[in-house]
UniProtKB/TrEMBL annotation, chain A:
Keywords (A to Z) from UniProt: Acyltransferase, Chromosome, DNA-binding, Metal-binding, Nucleus, Repeat, Transcription, Transcription regulation, Transferase, Zinc, Zinc-finger
Catalytic activity, reaction form: L-lysyl-[protein] + acetyl-CoA = N(6)-acetyl-L-lysyl-[protein] + CoA + H(+)
Pfam families associated with the record: TFIIB
Family of the protein in this entry: Belongs to the TFIIB family.
Any one GO cellular component localisation term in the record: nucleus
SUPFAM superfamilies: Cyclin-like
Keyword flag Secreted: no
Function: General transcription factor that plays a role in transcription initiation by RNA polymerase II (Pol II). Involved in the pre-initiation complex (PIC) formation and Pol II recruitment at promoter DNA. Together with the TATA box-bound TBP forms the core initiation complex and provides a bridge between TBP and the Pol II-TFIIF complex. Released from the PIC early following the onset of transcription during the initiation and elongation transition and reassociates with TBP during the next transcription cycle. Associates with chromatin to core promoter-specific regions.
Originating species: Poecilia mexicana
Domain Cyclin-like: 91-172, 185-266
EC numbers: 2.3.1.48
PANTHER family reported for this sequence: TRANSCRIPTION INITIATION FACTOR IIB, TRANSCRIPTION INITIATION FACTOR IIB-RELATED
Subcellular compartments: Chromosome; Nucleus
This protein's name: Transcription initiation factor IIB
UniProtKB/TrEMBL annotation, chain B:
InterPro entries: TBP, TBP_dom_sf
Protein name (database record): TATA box-binding protein-like 1
GO biological process, one term: DNA-templated transcription initiation
One MF annotation (Gene Ontology) recorded for this entry: DNA binding
Keywords associated with the record: DNA-binding, Transcription
PANTHER family reported in the protein's UniProt record: TATA-BOX BINDING PROTEIN (PTHR10126)
Organism this protein belongs to: Poecilia mexicana
Lineage, top ranks: Eukaryota, Metazoa, Chordata, Craniata, Vertebrata
Pfam families linked: TBP (PF00352)
Family stated for the protein in its record: Belongs to the TBP family.
Length: 288, 126
């Protein structure tokens, strides 16, 4: 690894190679007092606009502090001022994604989307947080693991209405479209959060899919149908969950679950998978 | 000052005039000018139910359906600058900007779309 020294004197002057020795590579986890590596982490030039500025870190010796105890050498005069908002947004995206434990690939996709939208400037008037939340929603959808708007709302300060608006605007600006959500996308998450066993989850997935195929629930949101299916599956098994519990996890009102349940109840016998072990038989299912 | 009024054409004009009269009674200097129809909304209902998921898949990217946000699929016609909202029951709401004469607009709107949609919905009837 070679260190490139950027000579800055008001204008860019040139590069000079000063060290051709090989680089230290840190393998162990323990933090030695002195990290001999001279270059640090890999940068992310795709997202940050790629400037190689010098940053002044906090001093350790006595000489770096002046009389009042403030650090003598100020840090970071104008580091990438044009992209400061973008870096802020990336930080916000990272925080939001961390709250719901989203993997790195979704975060990277969100950052890319945000960068594209930001550079296009067509949504410049909107709050950056709103655009970031909408990008997060789109990224989850594109990766095949959609999150409901309410789930994104829970980790963001922006209202669902605003996120929805930004979502539509971004799709128009980037000229992309997303796949429609299905009931199966949410089954594993909701069932795990409720602590339901795999059998019940598979049954609920089957019920929801069958209900949509038979068009028993026209015009109902897939989330509501999924919630009703989970309710039916859990009530037929040993692990009974109340509508309120399911509504809490899915973000639907329990009257909504009741409505969708009433639509699928008449044909409950056909909706269950053939190899399902009933703890409560179909005719004893609760009728709301 | 701008007033937006919704309703049938003559009644909307009457309503706007009535409001102007109220303002006049309050003491403001009012002059009623430039009354124009800007937005036309039509409602119609198809005799069949619509499978919104299939409809949206067949009509990408003109159609957009977000069940979490709105229960209808929105279909935007660019050259006429109109939006059709299709509900799963078969009801349609047609909203359009005024281009020329509003009477012909309202009347040509719906039959054209009925024809267009019927052709596309043939395979997606419930």
């Amino acid at each position: 690894c070679i260190i490139v020294y950027k000579i800055y004197n008001g204008t860019y002057q040139g590069d000079r190679v000063i060290d051709v020795g090989s680089e230290w590579r840190t393998f162990s986890n323990e933090k030695a007092l002195k990290d001999p590596s001279r270059v640090g982490d890999a940068q992310n030039p795709l997202l940050n606009g790629g400037d190689l500025t010098t940053m002044i870190s906090r001093g350790t010796g006595a000489a770096s502090f002046d009389e009042f105890g403030n650090s003598k050498y100020q840090n970071r005069r104008t580091m990438s001022s044009s992209d400061r908002a973008m870096l802020n947004a990336f930080k916000e995206i990272s925080t939001m994604a961390d709250r719901i434990n989203l993997p790195r690939n979704i975060v990277d996709r969100t950052n890319n989307l945000f960068k594209q939208v930001y550079e296009q400037k067509s949504l410049k008037g909107r709050a950056n947080d709103a655009i970031a939340s909408a990008c997060l929603y789109i990224a989850c959808r594109q990766e095949g693991v959609p999150r409901t708007f309410k789930e994104i709302c829970a980790v963001s300060r922006i209202s669902k209405k605003e996120i929805g608006r930004c979502f539509k605007l971004i799709l128009k600006a980037l000229e992309t479209s997303v796949d429609l959500i299905t009931t199966g996308d949410f089954m594993s998450r909701f069932c795990s959060n409720l602590g339901l066993p795999k059998q019940v989850q598979m049954a609920a997935t089957f019920i929801a899919r069958k209900a949509v195929e038979l068009d028993l629930v026209p015009g109902r949101s897939p989330i509501s149908v999924a919630a009703a299916a989970i309710y039916m599956a859990s009530q037929a098994s040993a692990e009974k969950k109340t509508q309120k519990e399911i509504g809490d996890i899915a973000g639907v009102a329990d009257v909504t679950i009741r409505q969708s349940y009433r639509l699928i109840y008449p044909r409950a016998a056909e909706l269950f998978p053939p190899d399902f072990k009933f703890d409560t038989p179909v005719d004893k299912l609760p009728q709301l | 000052c701008k007033i937006n009024c919704t309703g049938f054409e003559e009644e909307a004009k009457l309503g706007a005039r009535r409001l102007a009269r109220c303002l006049q009674k309050l003491g403001f200097k009012v002059r009623f000018s430039a009354f124009r129809v800007v937005n036309v909304l039509a409602v119609c209902s198809m005799p069949f139910a619509v499978h919104l998921v299939d409809f949206t898949k067949n009509n990408r990217p003109i159609a957009s359906y977000e069940p979490e946000l709105h229960p209808a699929a929105t279909y935007r016609i660019k050259n006429l600058k109109a939006t059709v909202q299709v509900f799963s029951t078969g009801s349609l709401t047609v909203t359009g900007m005024l281009l020329s004469h509003h009477h012909t607009h309202t009347h040509t709107h719906t039959p054209t779309f009925l024809a267009v949609l019927y052709l596309q919905l043939e395979g997606t009837q419930a």
